[in-house]
Design goal:
By secondary structure, the protein is mostly helical. It is built from 3 helices and no strands.
Length: 92
């Protein structure tokens, strides 16, 4: 009897440890950045995914460069120069 109660208590605690973080992450995915910093554990204001707003300067520079994608800029300078592979894999 006591083993059954302790087993259920351990499984209940384990379930809480798993379910609470998943719930926080799930609700956090519907929050904007401002909402996340204002109340990380509060419910989102709406259940629609947040939209990203690009500044007018970013839109203008994207139009000028011809890249209107929303991906972040590459960390390496154009063109990226990787070290050349040796002609032979092992020294002679």
């Amino acid at each position: 009897m006591l083993a059954s109660i302790s087993r259920r208590a351990i499984l209940g605690i384990y379930a809480i440890i798993i379910i609470v973080p998943l719930t926080v992450v799930g609700f956090g995915s519907f929050k904007s950045t401002q909402e996340l910093f204002a109340g990380p554990f509060s419910l989102p204001q709406s259940l629609s995914p947040p939209t990203t707003q690009r500044s007018s300067a970013a839109r203008t520079s994207a139009r000028r460069s011809g890249t209107a994608s929303s991906s972040p800029p590459s960390p390496c300078r154009s063109p990226c120069s990787w070290p050349a592979w040796p002609a032979t894999p092992w020294p002679a």
